[in-house]
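Sample log: histidine kinase.
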Amino acid sequence: MNHDNLYQYNNKQRWKVLLFLFAALIAAASLFYTNYLVKSLSKSERTKAEVWAMSTRSIMTMPDVDDQFISYVYAVRDSLSIPAIITDSKGNIIFWRDLDPHKTNIEEQADSVNSELEYDPVYFEKQLARMKRNHAPIALPLDTGETWSVYYLDSLALRQLRVFPYLQLSLIAIFLIIAYTVFNSIKKSEQNLVWVGMAKEAAHQLGTPISSLMGWLELVRIKFDAEDDSSLNEMERDVKRLEVVADRFSKIGSIPSLANHVVYQVIRDFVQYFKVRTSEKITFEITGDKTVEAKLNIPLFDWIIENLLKNAVNAIESEGKITINIIDNIAKEEIFIDISDTGKGIPKSNFDAIFQPGFTTRKRGWGLGLSLTKRMVDYHQGQIFVKESELGKGTTFRIILKSNLRYEPTQV
């Protein structure tokens, strides 16, 4: 990665970290404030439970007093709306409030005439166990020396407040993820349109000089009577190669047409063209299955192989070897194409980054070769990745394509 790309990459990473820290700070502040509110309301509700218990005790133990005072005590007790249970010193349930109004823990109430209450002691025991798990009991001593215990649950509002920040943050996170995905998709779509426009314009601009070069070649052959001249034949192959390149650019953005081809033959034909334009110190070898077929678009697939071979050649500083091994994975109905070189290797930390647009280790590189390669492999409904690499020893890229051959298990 050159200096400018490294700066841009680090700058993007720094912004991502800052945005993540800012989001984490907002989440922490929200949770902290909500926790503060929950604690304050929890104290308030415990006070309510204590007041309810004391008012209930007063009603049960108060001597004959003014009716107005009794009405006041009842009003205070009934205004405190939280689920609560009072048990005696033996753990028996003697009073409760804000539980299921259709159930009772007193059998006589259910047996009384015209009673719509259901005697359900199991329900009350479950509620009591639940309250014991939520809060420590409030001790309520009586004048008789006996001590009652008051258990209670948090109100519905308090329970909802406990959950609210997590629900709120989850919804915000989902919204941000959706928004990021949508905007990222729009951004990529706009970038793709720019690249497609540039590619088609490049193809258009290349068309005229390529046609002229083909014409000049024919004139040279006629003028110098050199129909079978090897140099002119190689020049013609290069001009035709330019036609292929221009055709590639003109097809960017279009859905490529795929047809059945023998993978070995396609790769062999391109390597024969490529190796005569490479240093003689670099040798090429194609091994593996020679018959397996896959659906390919020849111009695009040649481009894939060309980019990988160019990277392999650039990785080899002087002498070296490039090996292409074709493997038919019958069980998975896939074809593995391993392209190995004896070059300088790739650090493991860059295995994924090398496929990102703009990533390059060369001073004059654009960093688009492997990014385009990955996209063209995607067009073939395949995969590409760094299978293995060791610094100073070389790298192996693996392409995975769907095989046209279908494995039929033997019928027993």
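Observation: The mean pLDDT is 82.
Observation: The radius of gyration is 40 Å.
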